[in-house]
Amino acid sequence: MEGESEWKTWSRETVPNVMRIVSTCTTLPHRDLFSLLLVSPCLHQSLLSCSSLWQGIDLREMNNAGARLVAALSMSRYRHVKEINLEFAQDIEDKHLELLKAKCLDSLKNLESLNLNGCQKISDKGIEIITSACPTLKVFSIYWNVRVTDIGIQHLVKNCKRIVDLNLSGCKNISDKSLQLVADNYQELESLNLTRCVKLTDLGLQKILLQCSSLRSLNLYALSSFTDKAYKKISLLTHLKFLDLCGAQNLSDEGLACIAKCKNLVSLNLTWCVRITDAGVIAIAQGCTSLEFLSLFGIVGVTDKCLEALSKFCSNTLTTLDVNGCVGIKADMNIVLSLLIISKDTDVFASRGPHQST
């Protein structure tokens, strides 16, 4: 009787408390959630009945991820999965995606987010297979894949019409043709990452800037081939909040002054934009008064004058300022801090030595 009483107490009090914690802890790792299934039959049943807990599958960096994913999607609890993360699951190949489509098609029809970052064995064929099975996909990420070409992007835009977040970072074999495809098919795109896509030119970027006016995040990190001809059209992105132009060696003050028309910018990375001077930064300070993060790392053409402008127009919002390597800035950092700190703490990085990650 005592054992039965304890079991009833467990079922009545402990299980609901566990469920309350699990349902409110959105960051609970997928593997921990799976481990909870083994605690007791009662908790197992309660967890399985909560469908919202089984809308994501996280196999990041796991071995044998392809077989694991097929096995998971074969279970009834994953019939409504919305997010699959295979980031750096390096054994994933096209054949696994083909098997998924053949065996788990019904489980993929509601998928909204697919992360294939670092899955370097996936080719254009794999993209064709998996995107044809996921018509409701909204977020697609395939960072660091040198096998993907314009053909893969053509399959993506043909099969998935709802993409709003696209990460093509490190896909070095896509060209302006891919950007034309994206621009023509994803006018509602909100986030685009083109880091190190070295074959792109002004022509392709302009297609994006002219047609994807809903962009809120644009990452052009380590792309030195673009010029002001394209940069000036960034001004068309009135909703833009995040812009990474690290290494934009051809960006001039004139181009930056056009970018300053993006009034909603909160994060701007100008690291190694070597042609920029005070004039460009002052234009940004005057136009982007909601700025929270600004990196001027490595720009030798800026001086204390730009700090004065940032103090005047952005001190109520700016929380991080990187002036590492800005040898033209002579002000003592205590003075810089006193200029910028008004309503909140501001981080100022200002060592004159080699760049360190911040």
From TrEMBL:
It comes from the Eukaryota. This is F-box/LRR-repeat protein 15-like leucin rich repeat domain-containing protein. Pfam families: DUF7885 (PF25372), LRR_6 (PF13516). Residues 147-329 form the F-box/LRR-repeat protein 15-like leucin rich repeat domain. GO terms for biological process: SCF-dependent proteasomal ubiquitin-dependent protein catabolic process. Coiled coil: none annotated. PANTHER family: F-BOX PROTEIN YLR352W, PARTNER OF PAIRED, ISOFORM B-RELATED. GO terms for cellular component: SCF ubiquitin ligase complex.
